[in-house]
Amino acid sequence: MAVPSKLLQKLARRLFQQAPEQAQFIEALVRPQPLPSAILWSRPRPPQLPWSLLPPLPWQPAWVDRLEPGSQPGQHPLHDAGHVYCLDVSSVFAASVIAAITEPRPTVLDLCAAPGGKSLYAWLALQPQRLFCNEVIRKRGRILIANLKRCGAKEALVFNLDPEYFAQQLPQTMDLVLVDAPCSGQSLLAKGSKALGCFHPVTVNKNANRQKRILANAAQTVAPGGYLAYMTCTYSPEENEQVCDWLQQRFPQFQPVPVPHLQPYQSSLSEQPCYRLWPQSGLGAGAFTALFRNTAAAAPFPLAPQFIDHHGRGLR
Ligand code: SAM
């Protein structure tokens, strides 16, 4: 895509007040530059590394490295041996809201988990007693299982369920629910990939509504005092800040949590704590992220635990 579409230009004007910023944003999408990549170390780092590393960023955990563009860690034997998981630096940015959680988080549910980057991040960051990883698309679920196995996340349990089942069958049980939501995928352009129709209002609204549905189910699954992390890899405010506004109106007990290390990335499109990495930063393709806490008091009579079969039916 060499010429910016009218819809991209319109979005740039809504995202940035100043013309130079609008131009930089558009440039990052119409003429994408090679971006650094990141690796999560799921096993101890060897003393000698086969890649040259970029300097660590403030929100980069000790078990993450950033690599020069073109490093291709996915083709190295360390990858096949399960030592590393490769992901976009933007994914590390988005998942880093987890660092604002200081209490132990024994039960974590990743509702939109495949191919597994955020699940593995949460596993390494929080070392939960129980890690539930859900993926609605069965074929993607197989990739998720392969990645979790390869990287040694043996504690993880993988589900192939609609998020509604968790809300209905396991209400108010999870200490942390991750919603790395399906989105219009506008940041694919910054990676040099195609994302047809990604700026079209129909695409954006369809994704925003899907995100609200997932978040409504996620919110009902979070335990009192627990956390909900919402993130996307797209730029439209309808899918990001406006979804956060909707969540707070619909579930006022969910309060946004400031994430101190992401303060320099505070979204200028919201008064609430929520954070954006822009593609023109050169760090990654771009992401949006926000952390919420369920401030509701504990339910007086928590439901008895139930198990769910692969059709989503409750088993007593
Ligand atoms: N968290 C993953 C990672 O870090 O590797 C990436 C998740 S990707 C952005 C979004 C995922 O949501 C996709 O795997 C997609 O199949 C799944 N998804 C699509 N529709 C969904 C729905 N209605 N409910 C839950 N998940 C959905």
UniProtKB/TrEMBL annotation:
InterPro entries the record matches: MeTrfase_RsmB-F_NOP2_cat, MeTrfase_RsmB-F_NOP2_dom, RCMT, SAM-dependent_MTases_sf
Gene3D superfamilies, sorted: Vaccinia Virus protein VP39
GO molecular function, one term: RNA binding
Documented EC number(s): 2.1.1.178
Transmembrane intervals: none
Active site residues of this protein: 233 (nucleophile)
GO biological process, one term: RNA methylation
Domain SAM-dependent MTase RsmB/NOP-type: start-end pairs: 1-295
Keyword annotations: Methyltransferase, RNA-binding, S-adenosyl-L-methionine, Transferase
Binding site for S-adenosyl-L-methionine: 112-118, 135, 162, 180
Entries under CDD domains matching the protein: AdoMet_MTases
Cross-referenced Pfam families: Methyltr_RsmB-F (PF01189)
Similarity section: Belongs to the class I-like SAM-binding methyltransferase superfamily. RsmB/NOP family.
PANTHER family noted in UniProt: 28S RRNA (CYTOSINE(4447)-C(5))-METHYLTRANSFERASE-RELATED, NOP2 YEAST -RELATED NOL1/NOP2/FMU SUN DOMAIN-CONTAINING
Name by which UniProt lists this protein: Ribosomal RNA small subunit methyltransferase F
